[in-house]
Inverse folding.
């Protein structure tokens, strides 16, 4: 019995976790195992946890505007640890104009304000199936 | 006609109407929804009449504005005497950028200042701390020391302008800095007016910028109450907040309930610290959200006032009228703003601002249309300010207190919210109070459940968001959003280094040691913090000392 | 996956490569076809670790206590593996695994490995793959392996079959914990820890527990200690840690450890046989055949025992 395992994390100092919690719950309701690591995670903590938990995906939530700094740091650490097969997506207060940069850094998708959990779940399932 | 006869008459009329004209129209097709609800899940009836109002006694339940139970407003003349303070929350990048924005807003007719600090500042870290990387100046102004604070208020007379500072865990330090700036301006402490948010419980519940554990945080908070009631009499020492609880997903009734439960905890802590209720209660203030359901929001503000008055009188035996008055600031609900079709947000904010005014707020912040994606541009914040000004000067609603008082629907909802909130408060009392309820994760779980149910409602198209799940259009991404440069961090770090080179480091070390000793004991910490701030100890250094002594908070994380 | 890959996984686990440890655990959890091979490679290196089970009702602060214990153990340089188990939803099969939150400082500690697991349908408080996960961490060189169970109170039986030392955590004010203890959880504890000992009612809880222990079946010399701790204030944790290690060395010396392990291995063997048997039957018998049998049972044409007997007979015959 394989399960999709996802780490949901809030990097940096942002404390607004409504979205992260709603997404975590939706993913659980879609049959996934969600490791929720809470607030104030450093990129190092996120990557280390992702490796130990052998997750398929990492979901990063940031509403403080620090995403251009924090998200690529997670990607780079994953690469350093030979764990670049873990796919990273993000959400929060992220202007569309920042999305190309984030995708170039290696983020697979940004789920901006107004995205439904249904869309997020489908995206993850599809990506997971493609990888298997 | 007696009450009983009245009731009978209205009941008959209502039944006749339901069985007659209503049934006729329903036979042609159903109503838009099977059940209409408010955010608190109250059923919205198909009509409200004096029948629902009959339970209310005007003098017991409403009263006159400015008299117990203050349902209709805390002041006798309300906005006829003085309009609410137009206080736009602002702050970005560094102190000089923010100073410019403050001057702009004051020029444009804002009547009070409201400072937004960046996350490192709110969490007691300097801009050069490892966790500050990427966050400096992004959600508010970066303040690392008194030097930054002096720039922030340069050219702004603190005896003429009141300032609200959204700062919680390190509120004592920022208040100390404000006091030092005032003193440098030659303004005595009995003249300065303002507010510090200083509400740590909601940080644990919904906002996340906590530092120290509950017990030690309460000590700092009661130290501030004590210090200000003696030395800074015009200062609001706390702004007990429901705004963030609502933003995290609670209903209107929960917003009132959890805010007042927190307030009860603060009052009890202050009483336990030996303060007298009528000496500090008048300086407690509140901060609420103004959200989407128009009438429910107005009802919410009124219910909060009435409930608080009763609690202060009956539970805490306050004697002074001023101790029972729930004065509050309001902010329109940020989480209701959409990134899609951003100009629609102007309409949302207008309705929300109107509800706050009709609900009797003392001060108001209106969000800007672009805030779903960024801090506001000058143009956007100007529109937000104009929204308040048009309501104040063109709409006429400010010309009499509580203009909607007596509306059957409004009064019914007011009572319902009060009742529901009291249920929650009783439950929290049974658990041992707000601090305990937070430890158990009860409040956080209620909020998370509410948030999840709301989102599922959106995805089932039961909760409509115009432009998102209905009336969406294909649109280009917005241009001209405000961007905070990463240079801000670089420059702030340089400034810290310069400061540390220039200042009297021996005096700093001494002041920090004195603070440490005091923190380990039971003295009021404000004088020690002020001394440290004066010699330009940084925010991070001061909070570092307190972190060492108090430890850090460990959240009871519940999903 | 070929033998070389399995060898690589095994050798990397043995040198403590966390990525491979994590991978190996996943493969065992997902019942990969190489699972048996991996266990085969690791098993000779197992047996050194001391397995500690932490159980108790939700709200008892188990995770925080585990974090504090690991802090303590790390001070004497003991490498710790931590397995955190949370319930999987019986409806969706998903799970929120949120216990890691309580021990953020251990994530980046090189001497600690933390793995969160959903129960995935198992009912005894552990996940089905917990034993195998223990084996991986054991072979990887972790001195102490701490398992935090789901903590539903009454069904916490699996932990006794997996851990060398079981700590039952209770907390004052949770009301019915004493009732829970009466229901059989009492017998499984090697140590009782009363958490949040700095709160009201803690000393009462300690006394109640001690009384219950005196009234129970334990011979005086074997009575489990009752240790008050405050995980947040870090009080009593050193005593708890000391007691855990002390009990373990006593058990090693007296032969109790070996006896208990052998009992556990017998149970594990039994379970694996049952599991494999059912799997084989399910693969041999089609759904259609099964439906026919069930229908016959429903019509009372045959007894369940006869049906089972026939199935087993055909299975054994088929294997000859």
């Amino acid at each position: 019995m394989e399960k999709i395992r996802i780490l949901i994390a809030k990097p940096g100092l942002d404390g607004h976790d409504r979205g992260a919690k709603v997404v975590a719950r939706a993913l659980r309701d879609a049959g996934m195992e969600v490791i929720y690591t809470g607030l104030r995670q450093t990129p190092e903590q996120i990557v280390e946890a992702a490796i130990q938990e052998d997750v398929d995906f990492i979901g990063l939530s940031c509403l403080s505007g620090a995403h251009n700094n924090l998200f690529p740091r997670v990607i780079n650490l994953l690469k350093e640890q030979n764990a670049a097969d873990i796919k990273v997506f993000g959400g929060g207060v992220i202007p569309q104009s920042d999305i190309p940069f984030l995708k170039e850094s290696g983020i697979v998708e940004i789920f901006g304000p107004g995205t439904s959990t249904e869309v997020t779940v489908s995206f993850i399932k599809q990506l997971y199936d493609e990888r298997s | 006609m007696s009450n009983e006869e009245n009731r009978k008459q209205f009941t008959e009329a209502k039944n006749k109407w339901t069985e007659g004209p209503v049934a006729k129209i329903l036979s042609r097709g159903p109503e838009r929804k099977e059940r209409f609800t408010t955010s608190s899940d109250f059923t919205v009836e198909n009509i409200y009449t004096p029948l629902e109002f009959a339970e209310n006694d005007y003098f017991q339940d409403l009263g006159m504005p400015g008299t117990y139970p203050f349902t209709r407003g805390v002041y006798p003349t309300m906005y006829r005497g003085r309009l609410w303070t137009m206080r736009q929350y602002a702050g970005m990048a560094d102190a000089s950028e923010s100073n410019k924005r403050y001057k702009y807003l004051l020029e444009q007719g804002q009547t009070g200042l409201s400072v937004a600090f960046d996350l490192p500042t709110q969490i007691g870290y300097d801009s050069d701390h490892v966790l500050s990387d990427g966050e400096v100046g992004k959600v508010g102004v970066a303040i690392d020391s008194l030097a930054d604070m002096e720039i922030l208020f340069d050219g702004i007379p603190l005896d003429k302008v009141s300032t609200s500072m959204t700062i919680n865990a390190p509120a004592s330090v920022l208040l100390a800095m404000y006091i030092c700036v005032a003193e440098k301006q030659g303004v005595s402490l009995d003249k300065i007016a303002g507010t510090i948010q200083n509400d740590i419980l909601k940080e644990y519940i919904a906002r996340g910028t906590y530092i120290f554990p509950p017990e030690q945080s309460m000590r700092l908070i009661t130290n501030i109450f004590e210090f200000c009631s003696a030395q800074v009499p015009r200062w609001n020492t706390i702004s007990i907040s429901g705004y963030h609880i609502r933003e995290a997903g609670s209903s209107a009734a929960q917003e009132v309930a959890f805010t007042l439960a927190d307030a009860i905890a603060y009052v009890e802590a202050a009483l336990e610290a030996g303060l007298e209720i009528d000496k500090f209660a008048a300086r407690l203030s509140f901060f609420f959200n103004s959200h989407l359901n128009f009438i429910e929001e107005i009802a919410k503000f009124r219910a909060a006032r009435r409930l608080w008055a009763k609690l202060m009188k009956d539970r805490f035996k306050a004697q002074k009228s001023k101790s029972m008055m729930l004065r509050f600031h309001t902010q329109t609900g940020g989480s209701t703003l959409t990134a899609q079709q951003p100009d629609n947000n102007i309409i949302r904010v207008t309705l929300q601002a109107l509800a706050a005014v009709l609900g009797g707020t003392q001060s108001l912040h209106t969000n800007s249309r672009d805030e779903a994606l960024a801090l506001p541009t000058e143009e956007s914040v100007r529109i937000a300010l104009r929204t308040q000004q048009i309501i104040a000067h063109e709409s006429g609603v400010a010309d009499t207190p509580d203009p909607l008082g007596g509306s059957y629907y409004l009064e019914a909802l007011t009572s319902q919210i009060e009742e529901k909130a009291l249920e929650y408060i009783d439950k929290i009392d049974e658990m041992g109070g707000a601090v305990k309820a937070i430890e158990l994760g009860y409040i956080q779980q209620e909020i998370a459940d509410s948030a999840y149910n709301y989102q599922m409602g959106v995805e089932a198209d039961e909760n409509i968001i115009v432009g998102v799940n209905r009336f969406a259009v294909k649109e280009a991404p917005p241009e001209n959003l405000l961007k905070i440069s990463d240079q801000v961090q670089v420059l702030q770090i340089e400034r810290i280094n310069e400061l540390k080179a220039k200042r009297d480091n021996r005096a700093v070390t001494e002041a920090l040691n004195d603070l440490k000793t005091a923190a380990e004991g039971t003295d009021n910490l404000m004088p020690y913090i002020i001394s440290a701030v004066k010699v330009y100890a940084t925010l991070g250094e001061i909070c570092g000392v307190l972190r060492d002594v108090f430890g850090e908070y460990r959240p009871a994380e519940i999903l | 996956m070929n033998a070389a890959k399995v060898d690589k996984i095994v050798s990397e686990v043995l040198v403590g490569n966390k990525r491979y440890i994590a991978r190996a655990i996943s493969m065992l959890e997902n019942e990969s076809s190489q699972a048996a091979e991996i266990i085969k490679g690791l098993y000779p290196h197992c047996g050194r670790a001391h397995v500690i089970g932490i159980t108790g009702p939700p709200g008892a602060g188990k995770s925080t206590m585990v974090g504090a214990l690991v802090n303590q153990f790390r001070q004497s340089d003991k490498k710790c593996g931590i397995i955190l188990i949370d319930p999987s939803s019986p409806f969706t099969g998903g799970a929120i695994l949120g216990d890691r939150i309580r021990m953020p400082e251990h994530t980046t500690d090189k001497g600690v490995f933390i793995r969160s697991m959903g129960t995935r349908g198992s009912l005894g408080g552990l996940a089905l793959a917990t034993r195998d996960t223990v084996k991986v961490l054991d072979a990887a060189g972790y001195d102490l392996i701490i398992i935090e169970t789901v903590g539903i109170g009454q069904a916490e039986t699996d932990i006794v079959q997996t851990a060398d030392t079981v700590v039952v955590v209770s907390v004052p004010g949770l009301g019915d914990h004493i009732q829970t203890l009466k229901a059989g959880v009492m017998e499984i504890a090697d140590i009782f820890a009363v958490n949040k000992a700095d709160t009201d009612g803690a000393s009462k809880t300690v006394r109640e527990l001690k009384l219950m222990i005196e009234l129970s079946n334990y011979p005086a010399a074997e009575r489990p200690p009752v240790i008050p701790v405050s995980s947040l204030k870090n009080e009593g944790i050193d005593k708890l840690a000391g007691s855990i290690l002390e009990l373990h060395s006593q058990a090693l010396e007296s032969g109790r450890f070996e006896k208990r392990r052998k009992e556990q291995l017998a149970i594990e063997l039994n379970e694996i046989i049952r599991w494999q048997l059912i799997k084989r039957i399910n693969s041999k018998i089609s759904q259609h055949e099964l439906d026919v049998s069930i229908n016959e049972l429903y019509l009372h044409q045959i007894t369940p025992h006869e049906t089972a007997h026939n199935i087993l007979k055909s299975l054994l015959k088929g294997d000859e």
About this structure: Residues 1-45 of chain C form one domain. The radius of gyration of chain C is 22 Å.
